[in-house]
Amino acid sequence: MIYISKYLTARNLIGICILFVSGILHTETVDDRVTLPRLYIESPHNGALVQSPVEVVFGLKGMELAPAGTYAPDTGHHHLIIDNDLPDLAMPIPSNNNYLHFGKAQDRVLLDLEPGMHTLQLLLGDGSHIPHQPPLISEKIAITIGP
Hints:
Layout: H1 10-32, E1 38-43, E2 49-50, E3 54-61, E4 64-65, E5 75-82, E6 99-101, E7 108-111, E8 116-125, E9 141-145
Parallel strand pairs: 2-9, 4-5
Antiparallel strand pairs: 1-3, 3-7, 5-6, 5-8, 8-9
């Protein structure tokens, strides 16, 4: 038997460490039960080389998709930003070739993009196409469309 001290054996020290770590892990598990809403692009992945048309799949956790005109709490619909920056987050999201609206609560789209590099980003809007407060925004990804 290896002694660390006269009264504390290696076995007892390991037991104390296990209890300490399990208490920390238990605390983290309790905190993890609070799910913050998350918006993301499921596919394609950042840096992907793809062909056009490309299917873009949207992901949403912690909120529900609902058509435009729905004002229930914790609901919204997707807006895809293509090759552009975020709009004014206090105003309705523009609707044009760079800001696509999915007001029927769609969770994917087939995009026909020109060859080259493109950026994609999601922004969740409420029933009036206004971003939530705080806004729910995905990371901006870059994809390359092959010739």
